[in-house]
Specification:
The protein contains 3 helices and 5 strands; from the N terminus they run βααββαββ. The protein is an alpha+beta fold and 159 residues long. Strands 1-2-3-5-4 form a 5-stranded antiparallel beta sheet. Strand 4 and strand 5 form a beta hairpin. Helix 1 packs antiparallel against helix 2 and helix 2 packs antiparallel against helix 3. The longest helix is centred in the middle third of the chain and has 18 residues.
Length: 159
């Protein structure tokens, strides 16, 4: 029987300068699952498969918050991946105040930001006036264990 020779295992793909991916969709009950699967697929097949589960959970919490707490018609998600980190922005058109997570909320809900705070290397929020609409963005950064985020995503500031 001839020997079977398997090709060498490919090296993981690490983007050098970073890559960005965007997804916009109606703000609906299904948006959370769609975004969760989108982010999971990006990370599992790219540079950071070890961050996929944490990123899926964090982005799911943020998109769920948009659905539950805003009247925004759209939710927009931007994922930036580079060699050292993954940054995710979730943006809505909500005119209300920025999120202010409670120290320890009572009841069934209200723990989404605590989950993000526990898993993310850093996170924050910002608002921007774009023409006649005001947008609100909540972002988070994940890094592989043992690495620190170099800085928040450009154009964002922690509040």
């Amino acid at each position: 029987m001839p020997p079977v020779i398997a090709p060498p295992t490919p090296f993981p793909y690490f983007p050098q300068r970073g890559e960005g991916y965007r997804l916009a969709m109606p703000n609906s009950a299904a948006a959370s699952k769609i975004v969760r699967d989108f982010v999971g697929a990006l990370l599992r097949t790219g540079a950071h498969p070890g961050l996929a589960d944490d990123a899926r959970l964090c982005v799911s919490e943020l998109v769920s918050n948009v659905y539950c707490h805003t009247s925004s018609e759209l939710v927009r998600v931007e994922v930036m991946v580079d060699r050292d980190q993954v940054a995710v922005h979730v943006t809505d058109d909500g005119p209300g105040p920025l999120p202010n997570p409670a120290a320890r909320p009572a009841g069934e809900g209200g723990r989404g930001f605590l989950v993000v705070d526990g898993l993310a290397t850093s996170w924050g929020s910002s608002t921007r006036q774009e023409d006649a609409r005001r947008t609100r963005t909540v972002w988070f950064v994940l890094t592989e264990p043992g690495r620190d985020a170099t800085s928040p995503p450009s154009g964002s500031r922690a509040t």
